[in-house]
Design a protein that fits this description.
With 277 residues, the chain is mainly α. It is 73% helix and 0% strand.
């Protein structure tokens, strides 16, 4: 006995509504809490009863939080730039050049990202100390590449394989070098995939906590996840929850803006490799 179509449609939209509420409500509650102060923070209100920007002013005006945002931006942008630059060139070699052990090399690159951060933390700390990069933003950029670069190479290699070889052969006949082929011909075609992988790498670098906590020791050079974690008091009643929520909203809004701006390219990048013409 088949279920009537109206019931299936209603059940589908009810499921979608439940998923949206579960996904959006934590951020919505953080926004409403960021506008509260004093004992009002501990009162559960699903609709804001007061509107105050004191928490935002306190977060941005005290300490090094503005500097921490800049540090996170520098680290995330540098990580994305290096991941895409190395990923495009590596994917060209893995997808268009035939050599022995190519498949094994690709699986080895991907397997690096399967290790949890805590498993490589001690070795990375020794390397950072040996190269005298401790308490520098460069240590974070290099450590983040361990997890962003394999995913970038894997995704771009899959897209690079689907590009028509006729365009490459025509460019070679015209005397184009591999560098020109990659930068002038393939990169414009790879923009959806590059936007998708770049945004995911940016989010991973922006939200990373463990390496940022371990490799950075001064407040002026910390990134925003660590800065938010250090906004705490001696007990639960002394924790500035309003400031923490305000700081969380501040660092989340740029990610939402990036997703909305590149929404179409993200969808194209996620779906283009799934259909072969």
């Amino acid at each position: 006995m088949s279920v009537p179509r109206p019931i299936r449609t209603a059940a589908f939209y009810l499921l979608v509504a439940g998923i949206v509420v579960e996904s959006v409500f934590p951020f919505y509650y953080a926004v409403t809490t960021s506008f509260k102060s004093g004992q009002a923070i501990f009162r559960v209100d699903y609709w804001p009863s007061s509107f105050s920007l004191d928490n935002y002013a306190a977060v941005l005006g005290a300490g090094h939080f503005a500097r921490n945002i800049l540090n996170s931006l520098i680290v995330a942008v540098a990580t994305v730039a290096l991941s895409l630059a190395l990923g495009v060139t590596a994917s060209f070699a893995l997808a268009r050049i035939r050599f022995r052990g190519r498949r094994m090399l690709l699986f080895t690159i991907l397997s690096v990202s399967m290790f949890p951060q805590i498993a490589v933390l001690a070795g990375l700390f020794e390397m950072v100390s040996a190269f005298r990069l401790y308490n520098s933003l460069l240590s974070l950029v290099l450590s983040y590449l361990i997890f962003t670069l394999p995913f970038t190479v894997w995704v771009l290699t899959a897209f690079m394989r689907d590009l028509p070889r006729g365009i490459e052969e025509a460019a070679i006949m015209d005397g184009a070098s591999p560098f020109v082929i990659v930068t002038r011909i393939f990169m414009p075609m790879l923009w959806p995939a590059m936007v998708t992988t770049g945004l995911l790498a940016f989010i991973a670098a922006w939200n990373e906590f463990l390496f940022a906590l371990t490799f950075i020791s001064t407040d002026a050079r910390r990134t925003v996840p660590v800065a938010i974690a250090l906004l705490s008091g001696a007990s639960s009643f002394e924790v500035p929850w309003g400031r923490i929520m305000a700081a969380s909203v501040i660092v989340t809004v740029p990610l939402i803006a990036l997703v909305l701006v590149f929404q179409r390219r993200i969808v194209t990048g996620l779906t283009a490799g799934g259909v072969k013409g």
